[in-house]
Specification:
Layout lengths: L1 E8 L4 E10 L5 E12 L1 H18 L4 E6 L2 H7 L11 H12 L3 E6 L6 H15 L3
Helix pairs in contact: 1-3
Length: 134
């Protein structure tokens, strides 16, 4: 399963949402999800999107996942290229690593924002809908 994730925060920190797109290997859409997560930074929203996506993929029975995200920081932290220095991100990073380890195969890669457009739209929709009381 291919999972595209994105987190958005208006004001950084500010109202935040997450978006996730779940695809089969051939690109066929399996599901889309969005969620308002309250007040958060962009980096926290990115990790929350990853965590929620991995939980949902597990619920759907996925055993092999490839995550695509436009957050270079999160991707490089998850691949071990960067250390997690922010104390607020450490528990989110640890939860994401724990969830990732539960799959037979897990990969994460950085993609340009243009390739992650739908996940970004969903994250922003979650913020917009919460602002309207939906």
């Amino acid at each position: 399963m291919i999972i595209q994730t994105d987190g958005a925060a208006r004001g950084n920190p500010g109202p935040a949402g997450i978006g996730m797109v779940f695809l089969e290997e051939d690109g066929t859409l399996v599901a889309e999800r969005k969620k308002f997560i309250g007040h958060a930074t962009n980096n926290v929203a990115e990790y929350r999107a990853l965590i929620e996506a991995l939980k949902y993929a597990r619920e759907m029975g996925a055993t092999q996942v490839t995550v695509q995200a436009d957050s270079e920081l999160m991707v490089r932290q998850m691949t071990g290229q960067y250390k997690v220095r922010d104390a607020g991100l450490r528990p989110l990073y640890e939860e994401a690593r724990r969830l990732a380890a539960g799959f037979a195969s897990f990969a994460i890669r950085h993609v340009p924002r243009e390739e992650n457009r739908r996940a970004d739209e969903l994250a922003n929709m979650a913020i917009d809908e919460k602002g309207r009381g939906e």
